[in-house]
Amino acid sequence: MNAVGVDIGGTKIAAGVVSPEGELLNEVRRPTADTREQLLSGIAGTIMEVKEGYEVGGVCLAVPGYILARENKVLRAANLEAIEGIPLKEELGARTGLPVSVENDANAAAWGEFRFGAGRDVEHLILITLGTGVGGGVISHGVLLRGARGTGGELGHITVQAAGPRCGCGNRGCLEALASGSAIGRRAREVAEGSPDSALGRLAAERTLAGEDVLDLARKRDEAALEVLREAGTWLGIGFAAFVNVFDPEVIAIGGGVSEAGDLLLEPARKELRLRSSSPSRELVEIRGATLGARSGILGAAALARGESGEYVLEVQVP
Ligand SMILES: [Zn+2]
User: Is the pTM of this model over 0.90?
Assistant: First the structure.
């Protein structure tokens, strides 16, 4: 049986019908509404439209925020406040006639990579998505780590620098505050002030620097831009070392726009990982690029959809 995965973002809803083999059979996109009722009818409408003509056993929504997985509710979603507190299983179940569950978007993406992407050949996977923020998901022994309330796996919010920059979560020095696209942009603005003659400094005199500018200029070998990426990579490696020591993963998969920096970011990260993590995990762990791109949320959510009796609709194929 197929399942529907719905990736709900601050600006758009993307829904897809996914086969048990992980094939995306149909996809529909709509803008996200910002009032409760319009949001609910928008999500329900997207599900009904995408599943038209397909046999579907269940739906899972991937939402950016703190999810109470057992209650199928979103506790807090910074860019999507209208969805907070809605009993989504009941509200959307009644409108679509399908079993509905909810998952954090990064957890869903990690599950997508585990089932169909960079981690399909392993049982112990960590996914880190480096975008505007830093998302994370942990799969251990083939099980998605959620914790007691469903809010676990927030790898972007481990502290890596005690008195570091303020993070969106309210804490200081989170991995997200030091290695995300926005953190790289912020650090680039500071470095540019101290090196006005660098390409980074000259661009900063014209306009506000963003994370992408650093990637561009680093590829052109501007030393100031390279230094900003080396710093971010070092923070990332400190995070990786903690993940390796705690979870002993076979693979750390890296996704998101910032991951396009490749070795400019990952070389310092690998170095830091080697220095700070324990043997033999540090020799065995493999850092790979995520392979599903922007569709990891839809694919992972579909693979987390549950049927009437609570079983995964897209069952794990035992070889
Ligand atoms: Zn944080």
Answer: yes
